[in-house]
Amino acid sequence: MRTATLTRKTRETDITLSLNLDGTGQADISTGIGFFDHMLTAFAVHSGFDLTVKALGDLEVDSHHTVEDVGIVLGQALAKAVDRSAIERYGTFSVPMDEALCHCSLDISGRPYLVFLADFTYPKIGQYDTSMTEHFFQSFAVNAGITLHIQVPYGRDDHHKAEAIYKAVAHALKVAVRPNRGGQALSSKGVL
């Protein structure tokens, strides 16, 4: 079964996260940041992954440590749950969210890299710092060992832009983690 449950406890956060790549998109999310909970729920629903996140963080400071550490743990959980030697490896998906559009392409390669081309107009959506969107996906990509390209070429509403990003990444991951027919690493090297 392609699952992982991890806990990360620091002086700034206490996070327990469970991930099931072969789930039905069930989500049980509690981070103390309403909009972030909404994005992680959308991520679970659109990826088809079951995701449970219980996070306590120093929100009296700001959302930075909580969002970053959830990205770290989610990335580590994905790396633990997925067998790179037997998956489709690549995923590309575009999500329109009303006036906003997001393109995502990724490679579960073991080579972490993030290209993030998206701008936000306002510093916050609720209690969620919009700048943390890039930081979350940086932490996620590095810890998951994936190359991740995110581009929002246009959009006016920051909520729509952020939501399109989380949903596009979710759909691209859904494609990339599918077992491949050959059951072997999709690489001319023979390994990933």
UniProtKB/TrEMBL annotation:
GO molecular function terms attached to this record: imidazoleglycerol-phosphate dehydratase activity
Documented EC number(s): 4.2.1.19
Keywords, sorted A to Z: Amino-acid biosynthesis, Cytoplasm, Histidine biosynthesis, Lyase
The UniProt record lists the keyword Protein biosynthesis: no
Record Pfam families: IGPD
Domain of life: Bacteria
Keyword Cell membrane: no
Signal peptide stretch: none
Subcellular location: Cytoplasm
InterPro entries assigned to the protein according to its UniProt record, in alphabetical order: IGPD_sf (IPR038494), ImidazoleglycerolP_deHydtase (IPR000807), ImidazoleglycerP_deHydtase_CS (IPR020565), Ribosomal_Su5_D2-typ_SF (IPR020568)
Catalytic reaction(s) noted: D-erythro-1-(imidazol-4-yl)glycerol 3-phosphate = 3-(imidazol-4-yl)-2-oxopropyl phosphate + H2O
Biological process per Gene Ontology, one example term: L-histidine biosynthetic process
CDD domains noted in UniProt: IGPD
Pathway this chain belongs to: Amino-acid biosynthesis; L-histidine biosynthesis; L-histidine from 5-phospho-alpha-D-ribose 1-diphosphate: step 6/9
Top-level EC class as recorded in UniProt: lyase
Broad class of where this protein is predominantly found: cytoplasm
GO cellular component terms, A-Z: cytoplasm
Similarity remark: Belongs to the imidazoleglycerol-phosphate dehydratase family.
HAMAP family: HisB (MF_00076)
Protein name per UniProt: Imidazoleglycerol-phosphate dehydratase
